[in-house]
Amino acid sequence: MPENLSPFHLAVPVDDLAAAEAFYSGTLGCSQGRRSESWIDFNFFGHQMVAHLAPGECRAAARNPVDGENVPVRHFGMVLGVADWEAIRKQIDASDFDFLIAPTIRFKGEAGEQGTFFVCDPAGNALEFKYFNDLSQLFAV
Fold it and tell me: What are phi and psi of 15, to 5 degrees?
């Protein structure tokens, strides 16, 4: 991994900007940048994530089996330290949102062992939050 990662930019469709704002700013604690009547910039853990109002683009993702779970193919998220992962897990627990895939340890005892959970934003965009006890295992084979 590069020593200093550059922030990525990601744009996702939403069908309700107020609901997206409540989820990303309220539930996840993401601060906001610029906005218009059709989009909002969020500071998604140091990365630029833009929610664009595009109701016709919102749909459930196809799913593939991964380690016994039915994982949404189209998803994004963050690799966090275990304390930050646990804090986000608690924020989701305390919210009106349900886990799409409950917090679990995936690939237990294998290369790439990780804590993970999935949640959907109000528009159905799937997000994964994960941690590794050993971050050098991020790209383990």
Answer: -110, 0
Q: How far is Cα 141 from Cα 137, in angstroms, rounded to an integer?
A: 8
One digit per residue, pLDDT tens: the chain, 141 residues? 557 889 999 999 999 999 999 999 999 999 999 999 999 999 999 999 999 999 999 998 899 998 888 999 999 999 999 999 999 999 999 999 999 999 999 988 888 889 999 999 999 999 999 999 888 889 888
**What is the separation, in whole angstroms, between the first and last Cα of the chain?**
15
- To which residue do tokens 């590069």 refer? 2
Note the pTM of the prediction, 2 decimals. Answer: 0.92
Contacts (Cβ under 8 Å, ≥6 apart) of 19: 122, 123
Q: CB-hemisphere CA count at 13 Å for 60?
A: 6
Cβ atoms 54, 64 nearer than 8 A: no
The letter for the amino acid at 120 is C
